[in-house]
Design a protein that fits this description.
CATH superfamily of the largest domain: Periplasmic binding protein-like II
Radius of gyration: 26 Å
Largest sheet: 5 strands, mixed
CATH architecture of the largest domain: 3-Layer(aba) Sandwich
Number of domains: 3
Structural class: alpha+beta
Number of helices: 19
Distance between the termini: 106 Å
CATH topology of the largest domain: D-Maltodextrin-Binding Protein, domain 2
Shape: globular
């Protein structure tokens, strides 16, 4: 054999080796089901996708050295169809709330499989995020007014669970004292405008989105139920066992998305608006400082209890007869490893119950705002950042001057004096004191009680923001 023939054969052998290696290289699917319009899932889906964060963390060493990744994204408007595709093996990850999440776990078990909840994304230990709204001009002002009324709700949603608990707290029978019908959020908006339903219960963000758009008024916030609620991420357990490093990579991307949102909530609220059509002021209500919910990636006892309650509610409704429990459904190993890989202290975060703090100076005095109990925020259309004021009276005085100067206002936020819940100022009730102080409330009944105790007068937003007399609606 001459040198040229030997060299040719060696080259062919090398090429065949390359082709063989290429043929054997594994392609790992990473199929993620998101709920883009459920905006408190943003750091587990939308932001990861739009900012290409997953690419930064997918492993490429060790057993993943020659791996190719097939990353797939699919958006859903609710958890049930997402679960169907996970059980069918079409998706590996999914984001949803506690109640539909428990349905996910039950559906997997029924199919002889298993899914696990791997992280919380956002939640409220009091129950904020879910809510009940009525048509804007409805005479109804509290849940006590709903007896005998027709209430729509997306069945098998976390809002459905909240509604059932709220009805139980009234001492009512959900089968006879109210008429509960199933209705998706996109249908409910039209029904509210047309006055075809008395009330609608829904999850994030619709209990706040409908009021923001002027077609409904909130009469009950989930925080009144004091029942913890959360949205989180799940994964097929067999997938997680086979590719634990990929699961950790997904969670590291969620951690970075959370950090970016903390650093510039206005910017990313606008991004969510661009992708989903849900207005930035609604997104900021949740994701900004002191928001309606806390973005929290740790398994606090309250969230574990929320899942346990959801599972028990499923059994009560005869929707599940599996042996599913919160302890077996939750697997915090992956999020703990993701925290460690991101140089974060999971146990410290687990103990932290604080909302995203507000660190800001008063827009009038320039002094740091220490007490945020009555802080009021104004977001102008022409400004990238929200302005902060120490109290509503100061903010409304400034607001009048801004409007007089031709400034378009995107939104104004206040806080409920009774609970601290962040509110759209235009949807709140107020008590105007004799000393000029203005105090905000979610419920008219709370405002009326406070006014009686303090010799103040109840007013609506139109009155306090212009300095006028209380409208008939407030009297």
């Amino acid at each position: 054999m001459n040198f040229r023939t030997q060299a040719f054969r060696l080259t062919i052998a090398a090429l065949l080796g390359v082709f063989a290696a290429g043929a054997q290289a594994e392609t790992i699917r990473v199929a993620i089901g998101t709920q883009d319009t459920t905006i408190n899932c943003a750091t587990g889906g939308l932001l990861i996708r739009e900012l290409h964060l997953l690419d930064k963390y997918l492993p490429h060493t060790g057993k993943y050295k020659d791996v190719q990744y097939d990353v797939q994204w699919k958006d859903f408007t609710s958890g049930a169809p997402l679960t169907n595709e996970m059980v069918a093996g079409k998706l590996d990850f999914g984001a949803m709330a506690d109640f539909p999440g428990s349905l996910n776990g039950a559906a997997f078990e029924k199919a002889g499989k298993r899914s696990v909840f791997i992280t919380v994304l956002s939640g409220s230990i009091e129950g904020s995020g879910n809510g009940i709204v009525v048509p804007e001009n409805s005479p109804l002002h509290s849940i006590a007014d709903l007896k005998g009324k027709t209430i729509s709700v997306p069945f098998a949603s976390t809002a459905h669970g909240m509604l059932l608990r709220a009805i139980k707290a009234q001492g009512w029978n959900p089968e006879t004292d109210v008429n509960i019908v199933t209705q998706a959020p996109e249908v409910a908006g039209s029904a509210l405008k047309a006055g075809k339903i008395d009330a609608h219960a829904d999850f994030v963000p619709f209990a706040d989105l409908f009021p923001y758009r002027g077609i409904a008024r909130k009469i009950y916030d989930g925080a009144q139920s004091h029942a913890p609620t959360f949205h989180g991420a799940l994964v097929d357990a067999a997938y997680a066992q086979k590719y634990p490093e990929v699961v950790v990579a997904y969670l590291r991307a969620a951690i970075e998305a959370n950090r970016l949102m903390n650093e510039d909530p206005e910017k990313y609220s606008l991004l969510i608006q661009k992708v989903t059509g849900i207005e930035a002021p609604v997104n900021y209500l949740y994701h900004g400082p002191l928001g309606v919910q806390t973005r929290d990636l740790t398994w606090k006892p309250e969230y574990r209890q929320a899942l346990a309650t959801a599972i028990d509610t499923l059994k009560l409704l005869k929707k599940s007869d599996t042996a599913l429990t919160a302890n077996t459904f939750i697997d915090d190993r992956y999020i703990r490893e993701a925290f460690k890989a991101s140089h974060l202290d999971y146990d410290a975060a687990l103990k932290n119950y604080g909302k995203l703090p507000l660190t800001a100076n008063d827009a009038v005095t320039g002094k740091p705002i220490g007490d945020t109990e009555d802080v009021t925020q104004v977001w102008l259309e022409s400004e990238p950042q929200v302005r902060n004021y120490a109290n509503p009276a100061e903010a409304f005085t400034a607001l009048a001057a801004l409007r007089h100067a031709g400034k378009a206002v995107r939104v104004v936020y206040v806080h409920d004096h009774a609970s601290g819940l962040k509110l759209f100022a235009a949807q709140a009730w107020y008590v105007r004191g004799k000393n000029g102080a203005i105090t905000a409330f979610l419920l008219r009944s709370d405002a009326a009680g406070y006014a009686q105790r303090t010799a103040g007068e109840v007013a609506d937003y139109a009155a306090v923001s212009t300095g006028g007399a209380p409208s008939l609606a407030a009297r």
